[in-house]
Amino acid sequence: MKPTGPTNPLVKQMINEIRTRGHKEKSNFLIRLAELLEKSRRRKAEVNLSKLNRVCKENEVVIVPGKVLDGLLSKPLIVAAVNFSHRARINIEKAGGQTITIKELVHKNPKGSNVRIVT
């Protein structure tokens, strides 16, 4: 049987750290995030900025357990994701938002309060 899930050793390490921390702190947010990050590439989230623009409020903190792709964004958001397309990063910053890594978000907000997971 072929292994599923991420093959990137850095992503695997991040998932293990998040899961361990989630169990230690009894954080359902971190455990759920680890489960979403562990999905195979075909099932992992790929979210356009247009979707974030539709479903998120201004200045909201959003986490995408996958890749953020280009699209139209008209409001500032703080977006954490595994990966960003080059154009998506530019458009988020142009709208007054910020891109951060999932590790940074988990470090700043381990309970996941006021964080929206978008898949």
Q: Would you kindly provide a written description of the structure presented here, covering whatever features stand out?
A:
- By secondary structure, the protein is an alpha/beta fold.
- The protein has a single domain, classed as Ribosomal Protein L15, Chain: K, domain 2.
- Strands 1, 2, 3, 4 and 5 form a 5-stranded parallel beta sheet that branches.
- Helix 1 packs antiparallel against helix 2.
- 24% of the residues are buried.
- The mean pLDDT is 92.
CATH topology: Ribosomal Protein L15, Chain: K, domain 2
* % residues in beta strands: 15-25%
The figure for the number of domains is 1
In the predicted model, the low-confidence regions spanning at least 5 consecutive residues are: none
Task: Quickly give the CATH architecture.
Answer: Ribosomal Protein L15, Chain: K, domain 2
Radius of gyration over C-alpha positions, nearest whole angstrom: 14 Å
Question: Which geometry do the CA atoms define?
Answer: globular
Number of helical elements = 5
Compute the separation of the termini in Å: 27 Å
Biggest β-sheet, characterized?
A: 5 strands, parallel
- Can you identify the CATH class? Alpha Beta
Structural class: alpha/beta
Sketch the topology as an H/E string, one letter per element: HHEHEEHEHE
Number of strands: 5
Which range best describes the helical content: under 10%, 10-25%, 25-40%, 40-55%, 55-70% or over 70%?
40-55%
Mean pLDDT comes to 92
